[in-house]
Amino acid sequence: MSESCSSEPATSGCGCGSDVKFDGASPEYRRALTWVIAINLVGFVVVLVGGLAQGSASLSANALDFLADSATYAISLWAIGKSVSIRTGAALFKGLSLGAVALSVAGFAAWRAWTGAAPSGEAISALGLFGALANLAAAGLLVRYRDGDANVRSVWLCTRNDLIQCLGVAATGGLVWLTGSRWPDLIVGVLLAGVFLSSAYQIIRQARAEHRASLATS
Predict the structure, then answer these.
(1) Quick check: 32 and 145 in contact, CB under 8 A?
(2) Exposure of 2 by Cβ count < 10 A (0-12 exposed, 13-18 middle, 19+ buried)?
(3) CB of 181 within 8 A of CB of 118?
(4) pTM attached to this predicted model
(5) How far apart are CA 7 and CA 106, in angstroms?
(6) Could you read off the pLDDT of 7-64 as tens digits, one per residue?
(7) Rounded to an integer, what distance in angstroms lies between the CA atom of residue 206 and that of residue 204?
(8) What is the b/e burial string over 26-40, where b = at least 16 CB atoms within 10 angstroms of the residue's CB?
């Protein structure tokens, strides 16, 4: 990649005659990603405390995702500027990790289906809205970098999904409050696991395609 292309957060448009994807190698992106990591760490601590106190499947999924994102974003930050094989390897690891999170959330939701009382709907909604605001701030920092390579795009996909997830958690709290039942919380937990699995598939598929392309041109 030429120097003139590496700083452009776009799929193409460098005038290099090929479909070059932004690889994150710019000071602005590094700073944005550092802030996003900090936001996710704060979100993890706050939502984890609430999730454990309430025994909520949706909040526990939310907290676990904040932690997973913090770790995978740190990997993304480390991988910037590395070779294609390292960047695609990092993206593959993130995809597999996200898949593991999905299975963990589904398992927790299944366990909660047989144990415990309904959590507080008000607490779920409040923490869901807190998470949504945190992810909205993160999305604002990352939106211009949404079309990068597998490593960069995985960060955007996770952040976008987290925003949707937190809004779903907030709505779930309202349903729990209205019905007095734990089932809305459990159902949303399972649905979020499905969203995580879908994103994991997209990340892994793009990373494998980029890895094969790099081998073909090497």
Answers:
(1) yes
(2) exposed
(3) yes
(4) 0.67
(5) 39
(6) 444 433 333 344 557 767 788 888 989 999 999 999 999 988 887 777 777 777 778 7
(7) 6
(8) beebeebbeebbebb
